Write the structure tokens for this entry.
Amino acid sequence: MIERDSPVTEDELHAYVDGQLPAERRGTVEAWLATHPDDAAHVAAWRGQAQLIRARFGAAANEVLPRRLDVNRLARARRRRGLAIAAAAALAAFIAGGAAGWFARGAEAASPSDLNRFTAEALDAYRLYVVEVRHPVEVAGDQRPHLVQWLSKRVGSPVDVPQLEKLGLKLVGGRLLPGPTGATAFFMYEAPSGERFTLYCGHTTDPATALRYIAGDRNAAYYWVDGNLFYVLSGPAEREKLHAIAQAAYDQIDARSAPPQGG
Amino acid sequence: MSEFREQIEAAIPALRRYARALTRDAEAADDIVQDALVRALRSEHLFHGGDVRAWLYTILTNLNRNRLRTLARRPVLTPIKDSDAATSGPEAGGRDIARALAELADESRTALLLVVLEGLTYREVAEVQGVPIGTVMSRLARARMQIRSYLDGERPALRRVK
């Protein structure tokens, strides 16, 4: 819009509109606009846009805060969580029952359903078993068919063990755990680096959801509902990596559980 | 309450406004604000003075980018809420500012909203986005040009037919 040798740059026109132009340049810019209607039209249009944006979204800052955005509440939930982690370590043998719900407090406003209990227990199980060197699982990954058959029978629904080899993850194996709604399948994967990821899967009556993310201090999880099963994929809190793994698991499970559709 | 926490609390209304404009969905906006607050509180021990507000905008901007990536990988059909379209003035036929924003590339939209709605300086926006100021200026210019042609009703597809 502005010629090369113009005394006023386009950046300065933006700065003029945004109130970020140095005071000593105002006069020059205003004189330029008075004689250049095209640029004056740009400036007017940009101002109009800014007004529309403020009119449309400005009021969101005046709305009453929902409870879930209360800083003190969020901070309290964090403190309780720290205490609950210590308790969970002491009650390791009763892991499923012991610390249930600590994670839920942090996220309680997000959903009142099974989701919180599932993610809390899945992360507890993750923390408990990933550090296990000799007995991380009950049935090893090289017995995949047996593992699937056994856990499907106990959970009461066909349970999938996603193949994550393409992402460099080897199936270590699986175990049966008590969960909020009964028997729960728990699978562990291992990366060449030694990092471990777990998939926790049990019954739920909650409606299907897309992938959702929840983060603890060092660990995080993606969770979702597909059919009548709830899944939690837990791992170190590296969101991108965890997302790639969760997405691969989600896609495989979704592809197998979805009824064949036309085309 | 600690000073750190007070500063976070003071920033929440503006964060909600920014998130609302970024997502144009009240629920999704509060989701990422909550996520940003949790992260900020978790990092309290890392905070040694400075501008909490700019830092919160950075966290929120990154969370929104992650959210968009997730949506892009797995498209979710979200009904466009037209109930408040009438308040946005004379842009009949749905050509309102929210739709215009929706058409922008994420980084252009982010730059524009941080400047226009949140009143950040260009330098602050450059820090939030992790790019030089020149990049912020070109994002801003692109956003404004695209919104203008959108609101003016120019449709590239139709023009090509002429």
